[in-house]
Amino acid sequence: MKKAAELLAVFLGRPEARRACRVVDLYQAWPEVVGAELAGHARPLGHREGTLRLGVDDPVVMQEMTFAVPELLARVNAWLGQNAFDKIQFDLIGGRVSLDAPQEARPIFHVPQAVRPANLGGLLGKLDPATPVGRCYEKYVRFFQAPARRAGRRKKATNTDLEAKRI
Known about the structure:
The protein is mainly alpha-helical. It has eight helices and three strands; from the N terminus they run ααααββααβαα.
């Protein structure tokens, strides 16, 4: 059995993997590659096969950038050291984030914990378990019982457990 490091080395040694890493470097160095003026108007959005996808903010800028395609392709391919791209597709960037944008720290979301009602289970036995409301209430009661059971590693709540609570 091969180690993960050996498999990773084989994968990263492939030409397509090296090319993909180089394209990621291109996105990160975008202003240096195409120049500050062009980088201010066109941001990298991605690529597919031989087409580089760039985002622009304005339709007029998109039209103007079509005249800069030969210069952009020459700079990008020279930086990559190969003719990786032969076309450029422009899209309105809209709300999308370009690939050369600095990575922001993602906020950490805390899942709020449900507060167990004091009178939980008070309606067991009063609601018909054959009705949708009765079944829903039983599941609601089990929802609050589940964390306690997991902590004690007890078995999952069954209908007989709920029947015993009704009495």
